[in-house]
Structure formats: C-alpha cells, structure tokens
Design brief:
199 residues, mainly alpha, 10 helices, 70% helix
C-alpha cells in the first residue's frame, strides 16, 4: 500500500507540472489563465501564444502523462493495477495542479499521453477521432470530447485485461465533465472555433 500511495502521488505531481502555463509565458503570455477561455491547456495557448506554442504545450502535456505511467510502471513492476491508476492521477494532476492553486486544464492531452503506454491502439484511435472532429467542426472542445469517448470505447474493446478499460472510462468522464461549459457554449452558439478571429 505505501508503494502504491507513493506511485500515485508521483503521478499526480508529474501531471501537475503546468507546461501549458510555462510555454505560454515563454511565448509572451504572462498568465494564460487570464486570457481567452482561461483554460490552462494547449488550445488556449494556441489561440493566445501561436501555433508553435500550442503544439509544444500539447506535446509536453501529453508527454507528462506518458512519463508518469512509464515511471510508475518501473517503480512497482509487480503491481498490475498501479499504471492504470497512475494514468488517472496524472490527468487529475493536470486538471487540479497544486502548483497553480488547483486551477488547471481539461485533461485531454494528458489523458491521451497517459494511455499511449497502456493501450496504444486506443490512444491512436482517440487521436484520430480528435483530428477528424476538429477538422469537420473546428471545435477543439468537441474534438477532445470525441477523442476521450473513443479512448474509453477502444480501451474497453482492444485494451489489455485489468483496470485499463475502467480507467479509460473514468478518464473520459473527467474530460467530458471539464468540458461541460464548452458544450453549453456550443449549444448556445458562442463557442469559438479554432482559427476564428477574436471577437
């Protein structure tokens, strides 16, 4: 039990690393929480700091999820459940980072990265769903939701036995919940599309 607690704490702290915040600041946005949607995530960085900053934020946020799972897997190789739990801990860390007073992002990129080591085919399908929905609608939020739901579905069908499928379902639920305000704006016709000029 102490090993599992340490592993989950480490995964949470890795997930809490505010890469989107730091990337935006490096590209001239002092506090990404005070601009655009206020979200500490790659899409808000993209809109307010540029394409390169958005891509870098996405890669780093996804990367920390993958690193958290891989490190925990090495830390406790005999615990089959811990990597799946660590994936969720990393996502929660991104959403509620201790470094930013628990004001974080929505978990889509970190969740995607966290499941690359656990269910690579499901992660690939999720990324594909995100790209297709984004291309068709230009709503990054809708793409993120589609990706999360696809991850959950494919992880349950194609993923390894154990808690991976359940972890993917819970992660998808977290991501959808964090996007509830975006869904409201989409229904209300006020959600900003990627590439649209600022109002």
């Amino acid at each position: 039990m102490p090993t599992r607690i340490v592993g989950l704490a480490a995964a949470y702290l890795l997930g809490s690393l505010p890469f989107s915040f730091l990337v935006a600041r490096a590209f001239g946005v002092r506090d990404v929480r005070r601009v655009g949607s206020g979200n500490v995530g790659a899409t808000n960085v993209l809109r307010n700091a540029g394409k390169l900053a958005g891509l870098l934020a996405f890669l780093l946020d996804a990367g920390k999820g993958a690193v958290a799972v891989l490190l925990v897997s090495r830390f406790a190789p005999g615990d089959a459940a811990l990597p799946a739990l660590a994936a969720m801990a990393a996502v929660v860390g991104h959403m509620y980072p201790v470094w930013l007073r628990f004001q974080g992002g929505k978990g889509a990129a970190t969740g995607l990265g966290a499941f690359v080591p656990l269910a690579p085919l499901a992660a690939l399908a999720a990324f594909g769903a995100f790209v297709v929905v984004l291309a068709l609608t230009r709503f990054a939020s809708l793409g993120s939701i589609a990706g999360a739901l696809t991850l959950a579905l494919f992880a349950c069908v194609l993923g390894p036995q154990g808690l991976v499928g359940a972890a993917a379902v819970l992660t998808a639920a977290f991501v959808v919940w964090r996007h509830r305000s975006n869904l409201g704006r989409i229904l209300g016709g006020t959600e900003r599309r990627v590439g649209a000029p600022r109002a």
